Amino acid sequence: MLAHRITLVLALVLSALIAAPAARADGFQEAQQLYKEGKRSESLARVASHLEQNPRDGRARFLKGVILTEQGRTQEAIAVFTALTQDFPELPEPYNNLAVLYASLGDYSKAREALEMAIRTHPSYATAHENLGDIYAAMASEAYDKALQLDKANKTARTKVELIRQIIPGGPAASAAPAGISTPPVTAPPASAPAATAPTVADTGAAVPADPSVAVLARVEAWAQAWSRGDAATYLSAYAPGFRPQGGETRAAWEATRRARLEQARNVRVTIASPKVVIDDPSHATVTFRQHYASETFKRTAMKTLHLVNEDGRWLIEREIIADE
Question: What would the mean pLDDT of 147-167 be, rounded to a whole number?
């Protein structure tokens, strides 16, 4: 069944990127041990306590999302993993888990978008590729079922439905129950990692990936996705506190204008093409790309340059320059 095949990833290899400093890890380790012992409620309570003191500990937040999922608190889990994609857009696992949750609600469109982001972030992430195939199969099955409802004599559609159900027994309906989602055991991060792959951990508990260009590009992709969704809060959160709009407009006026446009636009699609990332120094990066914007009433292609600054482990936009082609 789809829900069985789309597995919720709790392989804390991601802890190599977002691990908290050792001095702060005790609370998480206790919560992790409770989870391994099957004491979900106690583990969740320990995670909550730990996060009060270490709100940016990505491992603890990830574990919280997993437990909420297992408890059937789907919307709360979605909120946790969504926040992780915003704070750590370079990690594919939170996107994958969002896809699991959206699939459990039957929202295959959002599940597909989340998996596409996971793959953009980490093209070799095999789980996301397999899950995306399952999502496409589920969407195809829904379409063929609809065709059969409209034309019960359509033998071709019936054959295709039967083939898909051989691949995913039970079809899309099987994804409705979150209980069908499985999780591998939690494993602690290795005590030490080779020097070549060891991350540099900031005081906040976040980490700078070995290749910062990956995090930079993931941030830009997440910004474009938020714009496409009309998600004003996530879109505006991609800009640094020091961002100043071009043309002398005040930050408050610019935000009000952007928020209004995001809310009014319909069927927006923003894509970036041929991005080039330059890491100017450990705290500054520049990304140049061709931006394609399309809505129901307007299309535009332009060259755009974003200057980003790393603040507390997050890459944020501090300057935005656009030039029409």
Answer: 68
Tokens of 268: 């927006």
**Do 283 and 265 touch, CB atoms closer than 8 A?**
no
| 230, 263 contact by CB (below 8 A) | yes
User: Looking at the DSSP assignment, which residues form a beta bridge with residue 317?
Assistant: 239, 308
**Confidence band for 126, pLDDT divided at 50, 70 and 90:** confident
> pTM here?
0.55
Burial 94-119 (b: 16+ CB within 10 A, else e): bbbbbbbbbbbeeebebbbbbbbbbb
Q: For 2-180, which CATH class?
A: mainly alpha
Helix (H, G, I), strand (E, B) or coil at 255: helix
Contacting residues for 2 by C-beta, under 8 A, at least 6 apart: 103, 134, 137, 138, 168, 170, 171, 172, 174, 175
Short-list 33, 18, 204, CA closest to 94: 18
Which amino acid, 105? L
Domain extents in the chain: 2-180, 209-324
Q: Report the C-alpha gap between 55 and 63 in whole angstroms.
A: 13
Radius of gyration of the chain (CA): 21
- Domain 209-324 fold is Nuclear Transport Factor 2; Chain: A, (3.10.450)
CA pair distance 22, 207, nearest whole angstrom = 13
How is residue 174 annotated by DSSP?
G
- Whether 44 has a pLDDT exceeding 90, the answer reads yes
Cα–Cα distance measured from residue 27 to residue 38, given in angstroms and rounded to the nearest whole number = 17
Average pLDDT over residues 1-30: 50
Run of H or E residues at 3:
helix 2-5
What is the bridge-based pairing of β-strands 207-208 and 269-281?
A: unpaired
User: What letter does residue 6 receive in the DSSP assignment?
Assistant: S
Contacts of 86 (CB under 8 A, 6+ apart): 222, 234, 237
Q: Check for a shared fold between 2-180 and 209-324.
A: no
